[in-house]
Design brief:
The structure holds two protein chains of two kinds.
Chain A (H helix, E strand, L loop, with lengths): L1 H24 L2 H10 L13 H11 L4 E4 L6 H10 L6 E4 L3 H15 L4 E5 L2 H15 L5 E6 L8 H5 L15 E3 L4 H16 L6 E6 H5 L23 H13 L3 E5 L8 H12 L2 E4 L18 H7 L2 E5 L4 H5 E4 L5 E4 L6 E6 L20 E4 L2 H15 L2 H28 L11 H12 L4 E3 L9 H6 L20 H13 L4 E7 H6 L3 H7 L4 E7 L4 H14 L19 H7 L3 E6 L5 H13 L3 E7 L4
Parallel strand pairs in A: 1-2, 1-3, 3-4, 4-6, 5-6, 7-8, 7-9, 9-12, 12-13, 14-15, 15-16, 16-18, 17-18
Antiparallel strand pairs in A: 10-11
Helix pairs in contact in A: 3-4, 3-8, 5-6, 5-18, 10-14, 11-14, 16-23, 18-20
Chain B lengths: L1 H21 L11 H10 L2 H5 L20 H9 L15 H13 L15
The chains are: A alpha/beta, B mainly alpha.
The complex binds thiamine diphosphate and magnesium ion.
Chain lengths: ~625, ~120
Amino acid sequence: MAAKSKMERRKFLKGGMLAGAAAIVQPAAVVAQQSSAASEEVEVLTTESCGSDYMVDVIKSLGFEYVCANPGSSFRGMQESIINYGGNRNPEFITNCHEESSVAMAHGYFKMEGKPMAVLAHGTVGLQHASMAIYNAWCDRIPVYIMAGNYVDAAIRRPAEWYHGVQDCAAIVRDFTKWDDQPASLIHFGESAVRAYKIAMTPPMAPVLLVLDAGLQEGSNESKTKLPIPKLTMPAPPQGEAGAVNELARLLVAAENPVLVADRLARTTAAMPLLVELAETLQAAVIDQGGRMNFPSLHPLNQTQRAAAAVGEADLVVGIEVADFWATVNALRDQVHRSTRKLTKPGAKLATITSADLYIKSNYQDFRRLAEVDLAIAADGEATLPALTEAVKRLITSDRKRVFQQRGAKLAEASRTTRERLRQAATYAWDATPVSTARVAAELWAVIKNEDWSLVSNYYSEAGIWPRRLWDFNKPYQWPGHAGGGGIGYGAPSSVGAALANKKYGRFSVSLQTDGDLMYAPGVLWTAAHHRIPLLSVMLNNRGYHMEIMHVQRMCNQRNRGVDRGTMGSTLTDPNIDFAKIAQGLGLHAEGPITDPKDLGPALRRAAVAVKRGEPALVDVVTQPR
Amino acid sequence: MTRRIFSTVAGLVVIGIGSATAQQPAPSVPAGNAKAGQALFMKIGCYQCHGNEGQGGAAGPRIGRSPMLAFRNFVTYIRAPRGEMPPYSAKVIAEKDIADIYAYLASLPPAPAVDSIPLLKP
Ligand SMILES: Cc1ncc(C[n+]2csc(CCOP(=O)(O)OP(=O)(O)O)c2C)c(N)n1
Ligand SMILES: [Mg+2]
C-alpha cells in the first residue's frame, strides 16, 4: 500500500507545475474526463480518501472541542480534513498568531474545562515556538494534546519540507512531555492517538506529542474496510495505599494543630468539596497555595493569607499535591550568602500525598528540593481524599471532637482578623496615581461580583495577589491556578483559552494582565476578537518587567557601586506602550491608559458592556509596581 | 552550619522589628526634606518593593505612616536588613538622604478610614 501511493506521488511530482495549474483552472469534472480518456500513464490528481480523514475520526472520538493552531503546511492535510471532512466542529479550528499562544490557550482551557484541547503545530519551527508553553504545561502537570506535522520521506520533500523536516521531531520537547510517537501507519496512528490521550490524562497529567507524517496525512487511506477506532478506557487514578492512608488519618486526628496544604490538588471539580469535608471534619487549617482552585477563599478555616503563621504553629503539615513542599516548610534567603531555615517548629511532623512521587524526569529541575518527610504517599491527592476522610471519621472520639471545635473557632477568628487587616491594608495609597493594585482589584470586584464571574489570569508575578485577598472565591472555575514553569507570556493566551472554555457556560471571564506578559505575543487578543471570546482584560501596567527590576536592584545593592540604575534595561517606557491602541488595532473594545483611579470604575463598566455582548475588551490601567 | 547561624539571625529579626515598632520615635529625628526624599525613594528603588507611597506590595511590607519605625531603627534596618530586603550601605546612601526618605514617608497623609470606602465593604 505504501509503495503504491509513493509511486503515485512521484508521478505527481514529475507532472510538476503544469499538472498543478491544470487542477486549479479546470473544473474537477473536466479533469476526470481527460483522465479516463488518457493512456495508462495517466496521472491521478485527486483522491477520494486520505489518511487525515481517519485521523479526524480518531480525534473526534476523543471529544476535543477545539484545535488551536497557527497554520503550517506540514499539517495541511489534517487541517483540510478538520474543516471539510470534520465540518470544523469538535474540533473547531482556532487561529493563533503564535504557537506559544496555541499551547498556552490549551493550558488555560484545561484549567476551566478539565478536558485537554488539541494543538496543531508545524513540526520544527512551530514546535520550537510552542516549546516554552509546553514547558509551562509540563511544570504545571496539565495535559495538552499536541500534534506536529513532519515530512518523514526524504524522497518526496519539497524544498521547504527539507528545513521543515526532522528526523526526531519530538526531541526538542521530549524532556518536558510525558510521551510522544510518530506513527508509521494509520492503524498505528489510531492506537497512538488513543494511548496519548490516556497517558496525558492519567495523573500525574502532562502534555503529549504525536508527530503526523505528512505522507500519512496526505496519502490515501487504502484500507478496504473502515479502520477501527480504538476504544478509550481511562484508568482509575492511583489512590493512596490503605495502610498509609490510615496512618495519616491517625496523625491528623492526634495532632493539635494540623495544617492541610493544597496546591495542584483539584484535578476535577469534585476536589474542592472533598477538601472542605476533610478540613471541616478535623476543623484543621487549610492553606491553598493556588496551583488550582482548591478551597473557598473566605472559608473560616482558610489560613492562606496567614500561611507563615499557620505553618509556624503546626505540629503536622500535610502537603496534598504540593509542587514545592520543601519551600512550604523551609525558607531560602536571597542575600549574597544564601541560607536556609526551617519554618516549622521542632518536632513538627510532615506528610505528603502527591502523584509527583510516581513519576519524575531528569534534566529540567522542576521537581524541586527533596523534602524530608515522615510519611509520603505516592498517589493522586484528589483520588485519595475520600478514603482519608473516611479513615479520619472512624478515628474521631468525642474528646477529640471537642478539641477540634475549639480549634476551629480559633482559626475562624484568626482568618477574620487577617481579612480585616487586609481590608485595612487596601486603604493605603487608595487615591494614588498610578493606581494601586489593591484599588484595581476592589474596583473590578464591584463590577463582577454580581456576575457569574471567573478569574482566568495566571501570573508568575504576584501582581494579582489582591483578588485572592479581597474577593470571594468559592467555585472551581473562579481561579485557574499558576503558570507552572514561570515562562512569561503565558498570562494573555492562557486567559483567552480559559475564557474560551467559559464561553459556553455564559460566564463572565476577567483577567488581570501584566504589560510585559502581553508584549510577548499580543496577537492572541486578535484570536479572542476573531473567535468572539468574551473576556475583560484589565491591565496591571507598571510599565516594566518589574520582577526583573527588583532582581537587578538586589544586585546593585549587593555590589555597592550605585543603587540608582536598577531599572535600566528592564523598563517599558520611552515610549510608553499604548495598550488600548494595540488592542483596538486587534479588534477589541479598549480604553486607557487610566492613571486616575476615579476613571477606573466607569471604564470597567463600559468594557463590561462589550464583554456581555460576547466580545473581548481591554482596559489599560497604569498601576503601582505591584 | 549555615542554617544554624541563619536561624539565630532570623530569630533576631522578629524580636528586632517587633521591639522597634513598639518604640516611640527617637527624640532626635533629623530634619529631612520630604520632597527630596520622595525623589530618592523612587530613584534608589524603595518604591519597587514598598510601593510609591510606602503602602506595601507583593515584595515588601508597608513602611509608611502609623506606625513608623523610630528613625534610628529605620536607618539600622536599611543598612543591615535581616530578612529579604537588599542592603543599602553607607557607600551608596548617606544618612542625610535616609532622613529625607524618612521625612517623605512621615509627610504622607493618613489613609482614608476603611469604612469610608464603599468598595472595601466586606
Ligand atoms: C520567557 C521568559 N522570559 C523572561 C523571564 C524573566 N521574567 C520573570 S518576571 C518578568 C517580568 C514580567 O513582566 P510583567 O509581565 O509586566 O510583570 P511584572 O513583573 O511587571 O509585574 C520577566 C521578564 C521569564 N520568566 N520568562
Ligand atoms: Mg510589568
